[in-house]
């Protein structure tokens, strides 16, 4: 486990993932019933943007910093407001300077209501210790366990509503395969849950193979959203990222149709583009 999210926190891929996460939670919050979020690869939770790792790559400057400086329409700004408000809440009030970026567990914790719950899993010892220190409070629990096991071990949750976020580091060659396998196992136990899976786009091989594997699972509703910040001509770099959303809330597709072009306009590093399509859509 060499991956350290500190180098990448707040980059374009985090922005795309966390904006989508924020909209899913907004829909879960729209109904009174309590929900549970299971974050299988949670990371440390909170990242120092002035720290040595983030300063070495400065990836956040082409991610969250660009979004904060963008000229956005009222519609886009309203859809982004839960996300931007949560990022602002972890930074000094009344300034435009970003000093910290909240990862998925801290963002989710900010959106929980009193009866909602979060389970956040992290296996790398330093990140797990940081997560446990950051993720205080009764509603959220940090666990030092294998996220691939956690994906199916904690479903269905007793609330019977909620989301499983699977966001592995993709340092192992078989992470694309494991992603489909973990989803399959969890979905067989909890077919009505929402699942959000993240993957990198360097070239098309992994993403296209994943789509083929997912098609064989016979899951009823799978939405795929992809953002490329540049043309994928150099497979050694992160050219974009993709999201698989199983059982998306019904307004999410329409919201992403508004948000993705706005995100491409602000995050592209050359010729950016997006894709939003159903991989499976039961009638
Ligand atoms: N979800 C986080 C966010 O959006 O802020 C970022 C997570 S980062 C992409 C992936 C994390 O998974 C890393 O912190 C890594 O240490 C952790 N990890 C790697 N293998 C794991 C495993 N088998 N189980 C749980 N966590 C793991």
Give the termini distance in whole angstroms.
42 Å
Query: How many beta-strand runs?
Result: 10
Please trace the helix and strand order, writing H or E for each element: HEEHHHEHEHEHEHEHEEHE
Strand content: 15-25%
Q: Tally the helices.
A: 10
Verbal overview:
The chain is globular. With 283 residues, the protein is an alpha/beta fold. It has helices at 12-29, 52-57, 64-68, 74-89, 104-111, 125-134, 147-153, 175-189, 205-216, 252-267, and strands at 36-39, 46-48, 100-102, 117-121, 140-143, 162-166, 194-201, 221-228, 240-246, 273-281. An eight-stranded mixed sheet has the order 5-4-1-6-7-9-8-10, with helices on both faces. It has a two-stranded antiparallel sheet with strand order 2-3. Helix 1 packs antiparallel against helix 10 and helix 7 runs parallel beside helix 8. The structure holds S-adenosylmethionine.
Summarize the structure.
With 283 residues, the protein is α/β, with parallel strands linked by helices.
């Amino acid at each position: 486990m060499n991956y350290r999210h500190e180098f990448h926190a707040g980059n374009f891929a985090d922005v795309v993932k966390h904006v989508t996460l924020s909209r899913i939670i907004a829909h879960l919050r729209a109904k009174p019933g309590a929900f549970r979020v299971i974050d299988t690869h949670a990371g440390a939770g909170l990242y120092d943007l002035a720290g040595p790792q983030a300063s070495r790559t400065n990836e956040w400057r082409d991610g969250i910093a660009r979004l904060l400086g963008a000229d956005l329409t009222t519609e886009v700004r309203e859809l982004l407001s839960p996300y931007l408000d949560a990022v602002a809440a972890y930074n000094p009030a009344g300034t435009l300077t970003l000093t910290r970026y909240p990862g998925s567990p801290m963002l989710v914790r900010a959106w929980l209501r009193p009866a909602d719950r979060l389970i956040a899993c992290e296996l790398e010892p330093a990140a797990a210790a940081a997560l446990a220190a950051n993720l205080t409070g009764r509603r959220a629990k940090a666990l030092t366990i294998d996220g691939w096991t956690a994906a199916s071990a904690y479903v269905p949750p007793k609330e019977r509503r909620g989301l499983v976020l699977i966001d592995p580091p993709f340092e192992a060659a078989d992470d694309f395969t494991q992603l489909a396998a973990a989803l399959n196992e969890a979905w067989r136990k909890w077919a009505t849950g929402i699942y959000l899976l993240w993957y990198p786009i360097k070239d098309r091989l992994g993403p296209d193979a994943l789509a083929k594997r997912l098609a064989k699972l016979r899951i009823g509703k799978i939405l795929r959203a992809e953002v490329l910040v540049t043309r994928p001509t150099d497979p050694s770099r992160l050219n974009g990222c993709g999201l698989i959303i199983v059982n998306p809330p019904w307004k999410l597709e329409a919201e992403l149709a508004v948000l993705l072009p706005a995100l491409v306009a602000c995050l592209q590093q050359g010729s950016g583009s997006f894709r939003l399509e159903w991989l499976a859509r039961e009638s």
